Structure formats: C-alpha cells, structure tokens
Amino acid sequence: MSFARRWRLGVAGLAVAATLARSDGLIAETSIRLPVTRVDVVGFTVADMERSLDFYTRVLTFRKILDTETSGRPFELLSGVFGARARVVRLALGDEQLELTEFRAPRGRPIPTDVRSNDRTFQHVAIIVSDMDQAYQRLRAAGVEHASTGPQTLPAWNRGAGGIKAFYFRDPDRHFLEILSFPADKGLAKWHQARDALFLGIDHTAIVVDNTDASLNLYRDTLGLTVAGQGENYDVEQEHLNNVFGARLRITTLRAQDGPGIELLEYLAPRDGRPAPPDLQANDIGHWQTTLVAASLDPLLPLARAHRVSLVSPEPLDVPSGLGFSMAALVRDPDGHGLRLVVR
Asked: Collapsing DSSP states into helix, strand and coil, what is residue 336?
C-alpha cells in the first residue's frame, strides 16, 4: 500500500476515533495538553522566490536571514508532498520572521481567483507601520492589489479597536497581507517606541474560523495560548477593510509567552464563507503554516484524535538540518489552517 493511501486512511481513522471519543466520553478534550512556548515563524508557499524576495525586501523592507534548499524522505513526510524539493527562505522584520517556500518539484496550484476574506482559507500577517499614510503611498507606488477599498480607521465607539488604522492588500502571489497602526492606548508597548523605520514588524497572524469556542478548545485549552483580547467588530469601516458587505466579526487574539499573536476571526455575518478545500497541499500557493514551538511532540496523536486535527506528517519527524529545529510535524486544525509543531 502506498504512503499516500496509508496517510489518507490514517487521517480518516483519526477523524472516526475523534468522533467516538467525544460521543462515548472516552477522551475528555480538555485533558490533553501540548503546551506551546512560542509562536515562531509564519510561512506560506510562493510560486517564484525571486519575485517574492524582490517584493518583501524592496517594498516591505524585510531582510533575508536564511536561504536553503531541502529534499529527501524526511521532508516528503513533513510536507506530505511526494518527491518534494523546495527552496526555503526566511525573512526578518524587527523581531519577527516570515518563511517563504518555493517547491521546485512538484509545483502546486495557484490561489483561486475568487477567494474572499471570510473564506476559511483566509490567513494574513499584520505588519505594523509607524505611519499609515506613508506606508499606503509606498504600497500604491509599488502597484499592489487592494484587498480593502483603502486604509480604514476603526470607529471610536469600538472600545477594543477604536482608532486602529488598517489596510488589506495582496502580495505578488495574491496572499492577503495587512498593514496596521495602533493609537497610543492600544497595541504592544514595543510598537510605540520611537523608531525611524516605516515597517516595524509582525504583530499577529489572523485566521478565519467557523466557531471561536471550538477553536479556543484547541488553541487555548490544549496548546496553552492565552487570550490577550476579544471583541466584536462591525460597521461600514469594517466592511470596507474586509471588503465584505455586512461584515460582523467576533475577534479573539491569542498569545504565547513569546512571538506574534494568533487572531481568530469568526464571521457572525455573513455566514457564507467557504470551507478550506479538503485537498489543499503544502505545495499549493494557498498553503500557510504557523510554526509553534513546544517542549515535546509526544501528545500529538491523542491531540489529533480529540480535536479533529488532521495529520499531514504521519508522526513527529527528525527534520533536515538548516530549518532551525530538530523535530517537527505538520498538521491542519479543524478549519484547515496549517500548524507546524516543532521542537528546537
């Protein structure tokens, strides 16, 4: 039996086991822990590395800190892509990092042209800027594709988000990105320190989820992230930011001890966001992965059974040198978002 068939059967078996465990009470979901100490690098797949590097280093002022090529059986199993050979580049902006992966073989599919901000494939990173007007003009000069109608200032009635300025746009592969600036009374203290730079760092990555409470059961109760903020955003500014008519969102920000946050976006309205495609692969340009650092990956299989987490990697794997960690496994959360759990 091929590895691909064994993997599909294994994932199906985990889904069945999870259902039985919940219905029979054999496994209490809150009893399983895989505590995360750091939200590390956020990454995605690109079609043309040189094109992406030009955009991220020249326009957004990231700097390259790692450039390596990897292949072989361990990487095949980690990525779930047979015959995988990839170039991996890490970029830094301030204290945070972004990881770009170009699969030299096999090539994946482009991002569908009709992906919307409320689809559950949606993910972005929020890049903090010191001046929204200057940053927006720089992006316009670079000819970026708008994903918002323009920069939006969230209304003062919104206690949690009032005064925040934000703008969604697309990179050359049409990944969603956000630039964000905080008023003096919001955001981490580090974003208000005097700096000469225009682009400062990554505050968080945001993912669309179907049900916040179900996601908290995984991210907060099992992975150990802490809720750092929550609220409900709506009104015309939110509609224009997300480019979704009638947008009303429940937003929950989670943080580990270190690293950028993870923001859960649940669309209370409209509820027509589409689920992630079940056949999304790591070499598809729509693939994102958020790297979470843990002390051990021993609880991975019980976690998968209890939380409908799909295993892309069949088990925790020894990782090819040069990627910055010793052991890793790629999984997908119940909404299809990629999580790379690693041990340094």
From this structure: coil
Q: Could you report the per-residue pLDDT of 221-245, keeping only the tens digit for each?
A: 999 999 999 999 999 999 999 999 9
Q: Domains plus CATH for the chain?
A: 123-269 (3.10.180.10)
pLDDT at 14: 35
ω into residue 270 within 30 of 0, thus cis? Answer: yes
The pLDDT tens digits for 34-63 are 999 999 999 999 999 999 999 999 999 999
Backbone dihedral angles phi then psi of residue 259, each to the nearest 5 degrees: 95, 175
CA atoms within 13 Å, Cβ hemisphere of 172: 18
Q: What's the Cα-to-Cα distance from 174 to each of 57, 101, 164, 246, 320, rounded to whole Å? A: 17, 15, 24, 23, 29
CA dihedral (111, 116, 120, 126) positive or negative: positive
**How are beta strands 261-269 and 199-209 bridged, if at all?**
parallel
If phi > 0 it is left, if psi is from -120 to 50 it is alpha, else beta; for residue 208 that is beta
- Looking at residue 5, its pLDDT comes to 38
Distant-in-sequence, close-in-space partners of 16: CB < 8 Å, separation ≥ 6: none
- Conformation bin of residue 30: beta by default, left when phi > 0, alpha when psi is -120 to 50: alpha
**CA gap 127, 174 in Å, rounded:** 16
CB 71 within 8 A of CB 85: yes
